[in-house]
């Protein structure tokens, strides 16, 4: 009997069939026992075998990542190898087996805890990275000692569909998309960075399914239909047939929509709309250009860093320059790092916050760490010499914060002048409007900012006090809530009054069902992931601004979110049913 699950949120579209792989995260249990004298030799050999196996595994992941993703990402594993092969650690492990007569998992765990504790006291970027490597490598080694099959997603070497209670954005970013056909998680929301990463990598995904991981077993055949929002475990022949048809229809629609590539994003009443791309990793630039986007409206620079801490100036400069030159003369809006929240990186792992989304995140983190911030500013400014760069600060809450950040840019410019390093002196510096206070004070911010970009992913969560990654309260997370719409209307008004260019880069900019609302509210610059870029363009080309304004006028008179949603949904369905997946 097959089992169909319809709970969950489509994070990235597509339909796949494959074998389930259940991934429980890389939590491991450490067995602890004493050895008899007669067992010591065997324990040393067990350690040696696990050591060699771990080494081989890392080398093979490294080669795989270097060919599928990038050399930089594979470097993470070079440092893992260095940690593994450190002769002092190896010698200590062997000695402890002989002298302390404890099992090797216990010893490895203790050595790594001791090392982490002593290294944690040193405030140095390089050391901080090594701490993470150390913890990863000891987990891998212990898993191999216990013959636990797989410890990380990078170990997967056949085509699978991953089921997991939860995935971090960095775990997702390192997925090999030729092997991971799709994924399903129990936790998560549409605008979580794991979902954003799934779209970036074009891996179909359904998130927030509550308990699906407990319903599948390794090796089960499953269909993930991230178009209609269905997961089928052990499908029947008839269901497989239906799946093949849905997949064919999906591909046909994709081909049909791609014919829009060279057509302008112009409404029926000749209003030009500008479509830009959101990118997380530089590799996405190609697909954005293929979609004929007019530049990059949001470069989420933090994804360059993945599991690493802030890379040096040269590395960042090269990565930014690559993207900037690729799009020149089109604009590339580089956002300074937005760590914290659900994006947990090396630097923020040290201290756990009670409310990470309300904590030391984004620009707050950069201002707390001026040395790191200035490295990034130098890299962005240097890249600005090679094309059309705009710089943007995330999560600005107060005017002072913006001025302080801008002050750092000016200081950095002076340093570059002094060194004779070229950069674009007229670079536009703007901010993400994603905190309610920034909308309330948009007129004040407009005095100092060159542009605004609206981040609705966060704005919705901060206006409605609803965690954007929580599946439990996802029903409350709704950009069509009248409070959100009122704020969007207000910020458009303020930007007009102050002639401040405004764009929108939250996920709603790239979701077809919201396009008419955004046009009706007055947005003309939309930045989005390429996932639905053609659908959005198709809508733009099929509507008049007047009818979008009419729609907005109607919904703005309502107070019930469901009523608003229903009107927007109906309008979309009537006009665009053929482009609905
Ligand atoms: C947003 O908040 O809408 C946004 C675009 O930024 P991020 O999703 O990276 O927080
Ligand atoms: Mg944001």
Blueprint (SSEs and pairs):
Elements: E1 3-5, E2 9-12, E3 15-22, H1 40-68, H2 71-84, H3 87-100, H4 104-120, H5 125-145, E4 160-164, H6 169-173, E5 180-185, H7 193-201, E6 205-207, E7 221-225, E8 230-233, H8 237-258, E9 274-279, H9 285-290, E10 296-300, H10 313-327, E11 331-335, H11 346-349, H12 362-368, H13 370-384, E12 388-393, H14 399-419, E13 428-433, H15 436-440, H16 442-446, E14 452-454, H17 456-464, H18 482-497, E15 502-504, H19 515-521, E16 525-528, H20 533-542, H21 545-556, H22 561-576
Parallel strand pairs: 3-4, 4-5, 5-6, 9-10, 9-16, 10-11, 11-12, 12-13, 13-14, 14-15
Antiparallel strand pairs: 1-8, 2-6, 3-7, 7-8
Helix pairs in contact: 1-2, 1-5, 2-5, 3-4, 4-5, 10-13, 13-14, 19-21
Magnesium ion binds at residues 394, 434, 455, 457-458.
Provide a descriptive summary of the structure in words:
With 581 residues, the protein is of the alpha/beta class. Helix content is 48%, strand content 13%. The protein has an eight-stranded mixed β-sheet. β12, α14 and β13 form a beta-alpha-beta unit. The protein is globular and about 85 Å long. The two termini are 27 Å apart. The structure holds phosphoenolpyruvate and magnesium ion. The site of magnesium ion has 5 residues, from α17.
For the largest sheet, list the strands in their spatial order.
Answer: 1-8-7-3-4-5-6-2
Relevant CATH superfamily of the largest domain: Phosphoenolpyruvate-binding domains
- Dominant shape: globular
If you average the pLDDT, what whole number results? Answer: 90
In total, the number of strands is 16
Shape-level CATH architecture of the largest domain: Alpha-Beta Barrel
Instruction: Count the DSSP helices.
Output: 22
Please give the share of residues in helix. Answer: 40-55%
- Secondary structure class reads alpha/beta
Unreliable residue runs: none
């Amino acid at each position: 009997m097959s089992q169909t699950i319809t709970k969950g949120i489509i994070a990235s579209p597509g339909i796949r069939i494959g074998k389930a792989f259940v991934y429980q995260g890389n939590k491991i249990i450490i067995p602890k026992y004493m050895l008899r004298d007669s067992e010591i030799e065997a324990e040393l050999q067990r350690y040696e075998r696990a050591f060699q196996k771990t080494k081989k595994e890392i080398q093979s992941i490294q080669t795989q990542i270097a060919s599928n993703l990038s050399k930089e990402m594979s470097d993470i594993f070079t440092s893992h190898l260095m940690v593994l092969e450190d002769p002092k650690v190896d010698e200590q492990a062997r000695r402890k087996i002989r002298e302390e007569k404890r099992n090797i998992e216990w010893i490895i765990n203790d050595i790594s805890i001791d090392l982490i504790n002593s290294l944690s006291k040193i405030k140095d970027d390089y050391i901080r990275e090594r701490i993470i490597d150390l913890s990863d490598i000891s987990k891998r080694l212990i898993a191999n000692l216990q013959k636990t099959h797989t410890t990380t997603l990078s170990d997967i070497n056949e085509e699978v569909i991953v089921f997991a209670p939860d995935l971090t954005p960095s775990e997702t970013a390192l997925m090999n998309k030729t092997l991971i056909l799709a994924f399903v998680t129990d936790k998560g929301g549409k605008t979580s960075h794991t979902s954003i990463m799934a779209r970036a990598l074009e891996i179909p995904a359904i998130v927030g399914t509550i308990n699906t991981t407990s319903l599948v077993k390794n090796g089960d055949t499953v269909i993930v239909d991230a178009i209609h929002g269905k997961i089928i475990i052990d499908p029947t022949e008839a269901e497989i047939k239906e799946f093949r048809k849905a997949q064919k229809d999906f591909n046909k629609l994709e081909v049909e929509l791609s014919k829009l590539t060279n057509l302008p994003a112009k409404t029926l009443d000749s209003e030009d709309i500008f479509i830009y791309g959101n990118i997380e990793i530089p590799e996405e630039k190609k697909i954005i250009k293929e979609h004929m986007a007019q530049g990059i409206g949001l470069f989420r620079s933090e994804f360059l860093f993945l599991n690493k801490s802030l890379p040096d100036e040269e590395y960042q400069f090269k990565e930014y320059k690559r993207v900037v030159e690729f799009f020149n003369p089109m604009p590339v809006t580089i956002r300074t790092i937005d760590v914290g929240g659900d994006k947990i990186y090396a630097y923020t792992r040290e201290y756990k916050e009670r409310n990470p989304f309300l904590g030391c995140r984004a620009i707050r983190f950069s201002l707390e760490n001026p040395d790191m911030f200035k490295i990034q500013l130098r890299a962005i400014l240097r890249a600005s010499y090679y094309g059309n760069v705009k710089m943007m600060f995330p999560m600005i809450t107060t005017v002072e914060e913006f001025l302080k950040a801008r002050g750092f840019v000016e200081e950095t410019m002076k340093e570059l002048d002094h060194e004779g390093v070229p950069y674009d002196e007229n670079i536009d510096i703007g901010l993400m409007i994603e905190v309610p206070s920034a909308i309330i004070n948009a007129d004040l911010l407009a005095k100092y900012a060159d542009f605004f970009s609206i981040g609705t992913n966060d704005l919705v969560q901060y206006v409605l006090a609803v965690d954007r990654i929580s599946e439990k309260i996802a029903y409350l997370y709704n950009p069509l809530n009248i409070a959100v719409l009122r704020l969007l209307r207000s910020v458009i008004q303020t930007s007009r009054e102050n002639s401040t260019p405004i764009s929108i880069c939250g996920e709603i900019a790239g979701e077809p069902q919201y396009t008419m609302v955004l046009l009706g509210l007055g947005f003309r610059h939309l930045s989005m992931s390429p996932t639905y870029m053609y659908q959005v363009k198709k809508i733009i080309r099929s509507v008049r601004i007047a009818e979008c304004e009419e729609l907005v006028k109607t919904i703005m008179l309502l107070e019930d979110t469901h009523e608003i949603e229903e009107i927007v949904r109906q309008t979309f369905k009537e006009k665009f049913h053929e482009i609905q997946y």
